[in-house]
Fold this protein.
Amino acid sequence: MAVKSDEMKKSGKAIYSRVLLKLSGEALQGELGYGVDPKVASSIAEQIKEIHDMGVGVACVVGAGNIFRGMQGAEAGMQRATADYIGMLATIMNAMVLQEALEKAGVSTRVQSAIEVNKLVEPYARRRAMRHMEKKRVVIFAGGTGNPFFTTDTAGVQRAIEIDADVILKATKVDGIFTSDPMKDKKAEKFESITYLDVLNKRLKVMDSTAISLCMENEMPLIVFNMTKSGNIRRVVTGDKIGTFVHA
């Protein structure tokens, strides 16, 4: 794990050597009600490029809420496993959109999927993913865990642990974790830092309980921050105190 120091923070250098960025599908849709806004995808790609150019190894996991949610499909009467597989396929679509935006920004990128779609993306293989990152490529993990009944949050934590990431950066539309939804409750208070156990006990909707428990068991730190503010990814990796730090 990269060493943090006050001197590094003051110099503007990255305090992490490898991060996993967890993006929701909604992050790609911007102000649109559905699908992908190419301008938003380009903006996200530029922010990823900024920390990549600083020498930070970057991997991404992207959700599919802008296209299809397995839980919503199940609630509408679909068989849950089928609905989840459709959601996994949607994550591949989003991963390819992000790959296109990154390649246009000049960043070498690979997409690996837990569900094999060989003509479009690589099948997930940990050793190959590690090799790509050693070659300074951004790796985008798609297809969730490859199994129904697991969220992309859980997939993100699993991949972060597998690639020996220093931290998970969970991008949201708010400034961190709050006592309640800050979009609905003006009195909601932000946590500067919080333990995984408190997240579970307080039933805070940061990630699903499986993902949080996996972080806790493996002592994988998590930073929840606002993705909509340009430059925030760079600020997080250089040690600025933004968002909420979740720890063991």
Remarks:
- The chain has ten helices and eleven strands.
- The longest strand covers residues 18-23.
